[in-house]
């Protein structure tokens, strides 16, 4: 069966290294090393992404490392962590959420 929605799902205990472009949305519960570009990104509580990440909106429950660009709304939930360079349009930081590094508001 074909799925032309442009959505990406990476499950828990799955590791991916390389470059990903998901035209619509991406839900990550595993580990990604490399470049990830998508419209809407959700990072699960067991996920870790290391590399360059670009999205319009992000919900972070897991860990992001290195370069993060979110052009619209970035939500860092109580289990979420961002370490590295961060650019965002608007941010919502929940109690317990961690941001560590260089921060620039667009």
Beta-strand fraction estimate: over 45%
Structural class: mainly beta
Count the helices. How many?
A: 0
Helix content: under 10%
Order of helices and strands: EEEEEEEE
The total beta strand count reads: 8
Shape: globular
- Uncertain runs: none
User: Mean pLDDT, as a whole number?
Assistant: 94
Over the alpha carbons, how many angstroms does the gyration radius reach? 13 Å
How can the largest sheet be summarized? 8 strands, parallel
Give me a quick take on this structure.
By secondary structure, the protein is an all-beta fold. It has one domain. The chain contains no helices and eight strands.
Properties at a glance:
single chain; 106 residues; mainly beta; 8-stranded parallel β-sheet; 8 strands; 0% helix; globular
Structure commentary:
The chain is mostly beta strands. 0% of the residues lie in helices and 73% in strands. Strands 1, 2, 3, 4, 5, 6, 7 and 8 form an 8-stranded parallel β-sheet that branches. The relative contact order is 0.15. The mean pLDDT is 94.
């Amino acid at each position: 069966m074909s799925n032309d929605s442009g959505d990406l799902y990476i499950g828990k205990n799955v590791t991916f290294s390389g470059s990903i472009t998901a035209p619509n949305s991406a839900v990550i519960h595993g580990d990604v090393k490399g470049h990830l570009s998508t419209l809407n990104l959700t990072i699960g509580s067991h996920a870790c992404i290391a590399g360059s990440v670009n999205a319009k909106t992000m919900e972070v429950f897991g860990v992001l490392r290195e370069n993060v660009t979110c052009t619209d709304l970035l939500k860092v939930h109580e289990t979420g962590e961002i370490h590295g360079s961060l650019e965002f349009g608007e941010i919502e930081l929940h109690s317990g959420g961690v941001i560590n590094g260089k921060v620039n508001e667009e």
